[in-house]
Give the backbone structure.
Amino acid sequence: MGFKCGIIGLPNVGKSTLFNALTESSKAEAANYPFATIEPNVGRVAVPDSRLETLGKISKSEKIIPSYMDFVDIAGLVKGASKGEGLGNKFLGHIREVDAIAHVVRCFKDENVTHVSNEIEPIKDIEIIKTELQLADIETLQNKKNSLQKKAKQGDKKIKSQIDVIDKVINNLDNIYILNFNDFDESGIELINSINLITLKPMMYICNVDENAVQSGNTYSNIVSEFAKKDGCRTVLVSASIEAQVAVLDDENEKRELISELALKESTLNKLIESGYSLLNLINYFTSGPKETRSWTIEKETLAPKAAGKIHSDFQKGFIRAETISYDDFVKFKGEVLCREAGKLRQEGKDYIVQDGDVMHFLFNN
């Protein structure tokens, strides 16, 4: 169980080049013109986690299965997308299906790569996208309101309350305020979540810079970073051109050598997954034995029965307890047997909150 991250931005900001690098594929056609990607390309990548290999060696596992993250390369949005410009409605629909949004912002100059407005102004680019997402959500809300108004004629007070909630959200988006869920009761929040608004999805900004600015950024990326802080968003500094060079290498040692030569601490993939996990409050727990060692992605504060349900719904329904060992103890005592002897294997019940790195075995009733 992983999560899905949509890559969005204006045309020619480096989305498809970045997608190709992330997925080490040529699924997306990186071209110097808008709408090179008509259908959203989806690339599934393994979440890098060195703990998996360590656990696998200790347990002498036949297979090692990581968690996965899906990247969705969504074609470039343009001004007027919410009204159907540039196949906008279709692309906006794709964005509704993702868990988080990575907004690629062009922070480099290159006369060989055209810009839709012929000028490099990152904040202006961001505002264009934000406005289109807001307008798309307002239209969705208005459609929902129209549907409810037809039913309201029957005098249902619950429907009138729902219309009031929608009016409040529309007014909020019209005035570009941040939606405060404390302003709504439980039923209002439930209604808002059911509508699946794009503007409520967690977002990070990816500053695509040239090779010389990949370490400390540049004037453009600094402006985006300051803007993101006000929005409560994270920024990730990358050079899509560098990542493209790394991606074409087949040998892992050559990749590491190139990354080292460029003085990069980690790959873009690692940066994005780390930011994505933080955005969605995700952690990983493990199952480990002779057959396989496997990583499972859950949200922080997840209780043991729900975590067990990630493996199989029967595990959650018939949950009895979870035999749990912390990752550090599993490594220190070299596996379950010595952990049990040392008293490091814990019997956790239904109220246990699973921690990142827990190695677990679930007992359940059929």
Observations:
- The radius of gyration is 23 Å.
- Residues 266 and 365 are 44 Å apart (CA to CA).
- Confidence is low (pLDDT under 50) at residues 26-38.
- Residues 122-152 form the longest helix (31 residues).
